[in-house]
Amino acid sequence: MKNNLIKFNVKAGLAIVMLTGLSACSTLGVEPWEKDQLARADMALDSEKLDMALDDHIYFSKEGTSGGRSLAGGGCGCN
């Protein structure tokens, strides 16, 4: 009897973990009413032009390259 009770508890615990895991996947994604917050100008990756210029300067100084934001290659000859 004790052995059956342990098996039941293990199965019940596993079922709870699986149901919790499956229910957590149902909340993925952005709802339509949340998209306006993500579309704001200050949420863009390049919203601050001065920060972008400073980041580029630091990156190019460390890497010894020029350009490379949208083009292949970086001064080493490999593409």
Q: What kind of sheet is the major sheet?
A: none
Shape: elongated
Number of helical regions = 3
The count of β-strands is 0
Mean pLDDT comes to 74
What would you report as the Rg, rounded to the nearest angstrom? 26 Å
- Terminal residue distance: 68 Å
The arrangement of helices and strands along the chain is: HHH
The stretches of 5 or more residues where confidence is low (pLDDT under 50) are none
Given helix and strand content, the structural type is mainly alpha
Strand content: under 5%
Q: Oligomer, anyone?
A: single chain
Helix content: 40-55%
Structural account:
This protein is mostly helical. The protein is 53% helix and 0% strand. It contains three helices and no strands. The longest helix has 23 residues, at 2-24. 0% of the residues are buried. The mean pLDDT is 74.
Care to give the gist of this entry?
The protein has 79 residues and is an all-alpha fold. The chain is built from 3 helices and no strands.
Distinctive features:
single chain; 79 residues; mainly alpha; 53% helix; 0% strand; DUF4266 domain-containing protein; DUF4266
Give the secondary structure arrangement, pairings included.
Elements (H helix, E strand, L loop, with lengths): L1 H23 L10 H4 L10 H15 L16
